[in-house]
Design brief:
Layout: H1 3-13, H2 17-20, H3 30-38, E1 47-52, H4 57-70, E2 75-78, E3 90-92, E4 95-96, H5 99-116, H6 120-135, E5 139-143, E6 160-163, H7 171-174, H8 178-185, E7 195-197, H9 205-214, E8 219-221, H10 239-252, H11 260-268, H12 270-274, E9 281-284, E10 288-291, H13 297-307, E11 315-319, H14 327-330, E12 339-342, H15 353-361, E13 366-369, H16 373-383, E14 389-393, H17 396-402
Parallel strand pairs: 1-5, 1-6, 2-5, 6-7, 7-8, 10-14, 11-12, 11-14, 12-13
Antiparallel strand pairs: 2-3, 3-4, 9-10
Helix pairs in contact: 1-5, 3-6, 4-10, 4-11
Length: 403
């Protein structure tokens, strides 16, 4: 198969959670453990840092990878989802896994994958770990896909674990309260392995303390530490929270020493070193276009707060969501004077446009609906003046289509 045919097979045979939702979610570790054993347990051949959380885990993972790269290490980075190309998920020193490896890996293991019925995510994790081991990385920064305890990445025993913010997201799988969700995220805490918590939240801190004590894992709450202030190339005020967690991890990382100059350079060169997309990213000027992949209440709250401080004549928002989003909790966040362009991501999980429009109908917000994201974006560009601001968001997939 070609690279494109290989991806088509992966997407079709073993549905992505990002596209399909619950039917693609495997809440068990055994398939990954067995597949890793078949691969020779490649995750035993490199050091790792494991990153979980509701918001900030992607940005934090990229910051850590960038700093470690500047420190001279060969750094693997596994993240999800991808925005433009599957290979964004698996990188070494910012370079995506080769198309040839993706094709050869699936060709070699296809009969097993079909028979075992592994999920798209499970096979991607196995592919990443095999690539990192083959290429001899010094360390891999591994981002959890969903939750933590039963996530396929949770077969690693890292040097340090990092848990960022906890919010009400994926409640159908992780629980309907912050303590329950924190309990799932705390599942990445390993026996004797230090864990850093980026933000002290009253509802979740006791959960993390209890699990860490039970696992004899030294625990650090980054926002309670006296840490230096560093700048980052990642825009977005919310990154200040993520930086604290990253710095606390680097302080805890005794087996991989990092000099201060690597921290300074790494935080300033995150995008250049890793190719991160979609985090308060500016796509053009006049009109200025910003996009952000924030997609839950906590994330959108921070984004809209920062939008309110931007200079603009008029504000235009191109929004599309996935089915499981609770619009009742999100609608109060939306700026009342903006122009809204409602649309639907082109995936099976995309929220029905009639449902989205129905939620907006009685709010008094100024909106129009569009069947395609491209049409909504074009309409916003056409309506916007040179001093206006266009924001694209609501879902990773809305941002991906515009990028």
């Amino acid at each position: 198969m070609t690279y494109r045919q290989t991806l088509d097979w992966m997407f079709a045979q073993l549905p992505m959670y990002q596209l399909r939702g619950a039917e693609a979610y495997h809440a068990k570790l055994e398939p990954t453990v067995l597949f890793a054993a078949r691969l020779g347990n490649p995750h035993h051949r490199f050091k790792s840092i494991h990153v979980a959380g509701t918001n900030g885990k992607g940005s934090s993972s990229h910051m850590l990878a960038s700093v470690l790269q500047e420190a001279g290490y060969k750094v693997g980075l596994y993240t999800s989802p991808h925005l433009k190309d599957f290979r964004e998920r698996i990188k070494i020193n910012g370079r995506p896994v080769s198309e040839d490896f993706v094709v050869a890996f699936i060709k070699e293991h296809k009969p097993y994958l079909e028979k075992a019925g592994l999920s798209f995510f499970e096979m991607s994790v196995g592919m990443a770990f095999a690539w990192f081991a083959e290429q001899g990385v010094d360390v891999a920064v591994v981002e959890v896909g969903l939750g933590g305890r039963l996530d396929a990445t949770n077969i690693v025993v890292p040097e340090v674990s990092l848990i960022t913010n906890i919010g009400l997201d994926h409640t159908e799988f992780l629980g309907t309260s912050l303590p329950l969700i924190a309990g799932e995220k705390a599942g990445i805490i390993k026996e004797g392995v230090p864990v850093v918590i980026s933000e002290t939240q009253p509802e979740t801190a006791p959960v993390f303390r209890e699990v860490a004590a039970r696992k004899n894992a030294p625990i650090t709450f980054a926002d309670q530490q006296q840490l230096p202030n560093y700048e980052t190339s990642l825009l977005g005020d919310y990154q200040t929270r993520n930086i604290k967690g990253v710095l606390a991890v680097l302080q805890t990382l005794k087996t991989l020493p990092v000099a201060e100059k690597a921290i300074v350079a790494g935080l300033r060169r995150v995008v250049e070193n890793t190719g991160l997309l979609g985090r308060w990213q500016q796509l053009r000027e006049h009109p200025r276009v910003l996009c952000d992949t924030a997609h839950n209440r906590e994330g959108l709250e921070l984004v809209f707060r920062q939008l309110a401080r931007q200079p603009y004549k008029r504000l235009h928002l191109v929004l599309g969501f996935v089915k499981e989003k609770n619009l009742e909790t999100l609608l109060p966040l939306f700026p009342p004077g903006a122009h809204y362009y409602l649309t639907r991501p082109n995936i099976p999980r995309g929220m029905d446009l009639d449902l989205l429009e129905g939620a907006f109908r009685d709010t008094g917000l100024n909106y129009r609906r569009f069947e395609r994201i491209a049409d909504a974006y074009d309409a916003a560009l056409e309506a916007a003046g040179p001093d206006d601001l266009i924001f694209v968001g609501g879902s990773t997939f809305t941002v991906a289509e515009v990028i």
